[in-house]
Task: structure prediction
Amino acid sequence: VAGKQSLQNAYPGAAVQVSCLSCLPGLSGRPPQARIIVVAVSVLVIPSFSAKLLRRRKAAKSDDEAQVTGVRARIGRQVHWIARSPLRAFVVAALGLGGASWLAVAMLPSLEYLPTGNRNVVFGVVLPPPGYSVEELERIGQTVQDQLVQHTGVEKDGKPSLNRSFFVGQPDNAFMGAVSDDPTRMKEVVAMVREAQASVPGVFAFANQASLFGRNLGGGRAIEIDLLSSDQIGTIQFGQQLMGALRQALPGAQVRPIPGLDFGAPEFRVVPRRAQSARFGLTGPDLGLLVDAYVDGAIIGEYGVAGEPKRDVLLRAQGVAIDDPEALATAPVPTPTGRVVPLAQVASIDEALGPTVIQHIERRRALTMQVSPPDDIALEDAIEKVRNEVVGPLIEQGAAPDDMAVEYSGSAGNLDRAKRQFAEALALALLISFLLLAALFEDFLAPIAILVSVPLAGAGGVVTLRAVDKWLGAQPLDMMTALGFIILIGVVVNNAILVVDGALTRMRDGMVLADAVSDAVRRRVRPIAMSALTSLAGLLPLVLFPGDGSELYRGVGAVVLGGLALSTALTLYLVPAVFTVLWRLRIAFGSSIGAADDDDDAAPEAA
Result:
């Protein structure tokens, strides 16, 4: 009951955390629901158990308790020394806030989109030049497979053993994959598959570890550059230059053109002779239907029961064998006039190069360059380099067709969108926290002193994330990890609420500012330390011990661990300093207003 006001003032942190995490669709997962359960248990269950299990004890103070009391008294004296002088309080507040902000900005890593995960499978694809038969593609796949199968169940030449591998020959590529016996050596498996692919001359080859969130062969870090233009030749030429520039700017990157950078495969085009066709009453669709019927069969409908897969109904020419262009040119064409003429009389058959696949984006022909940057380059840095050092200069040099539009999709577009959503959620969390605290304290200055703990937590989270990345293994700042900063807002303000609420209570009881602040800190050191240490002990296993799924939660644990640790240590000094500065400004400002009001009241009497 004695802590009822502080407990009520701590509710906004939990409420803000729940609401703002819910504003990030697809990224928040279960934290909001878990936080609601924690708040309910803290309010309803723990007090009941405490009343039953805890009993008042009378005993002599131990040496450890005396040491704790001495630490509390020493911290109280230090805070009193800071709060007693306006200059000292201002210097501590300025140095603390400025240092924390500078540290957070200076050490903030570049962003990734989502964790790649640690799936134990590598997928690869080999893209041959146009004109390769399915049999040739199967031979290419078998060449790669023969090299990989040597490592099945056997660790050979320092390379990891494979559990299994496979390949599939398709009309336009050879698709392959491999699974390792040791999931911790997947980077070596990726290199092994790429080495096997490189033994096939004259092809484009790609291999990446499968991502938990990626939906394509580029994994979860694929930057897709969409080149939209009606000039097919110009687009392909620009794509060829772009591929070379990308490999030069991002050494080790995997670059995959979709659908390809070739000008097409040999094909025969049937072009209507308009004058002759019109004389016989034939139209372009009529000729197209006839040619389809002679070659592969024209689809004229579907057959099947409603709700079940349908079968195409094909129209084929009976008794006519089309094996070469000459046979097609002499194929009979019935006309609406009643005459039957050879196809060559109403259409020309031209040999040319044509695309095997036509890709459209927003109804425009498009070529997509899929770039998977190397692991040692953050996705945000890679996107910036692609935009500013590769694509931009090429366009300025006039290498692109006049009507070309360049768009970024894949992880590049997703990262831009996620950054905007995260910034909005973070700003919303701070705004709602401020307004709720202002309503509960019935004051606009107390929330400012409380929210000072947020930049301290941010600096601690960034420093710990850097330390984990350097000494415990690669840990990027992805959007899952960034959720830890929103979680911190609901965690670290609780300690500041205890200090500010205690100071306000003592000031209402008649204490002067410096005494009220120092006494509030002295009496709140024990609960602050207890809650912080138990939270830190619970977070340490998430950070120190890797395991399945550690890529998902280690970053969040590192951010919350470091943010809570640094914020707890500095809140005991910085929050009282900021609170003291704000209240002295209020007193000075209020006194000046009161003096001005007295002068205004005295002026009419003098008159």
Summary: The chain has three domains: 4-49+85-114+419-588, 120-210, 265-352. Residues 72 and 522 are 5 Å apart (CA to CA). The radius of gyration is 35 Å. Confidence is low (pLDDT under 50) at residues 592-607.
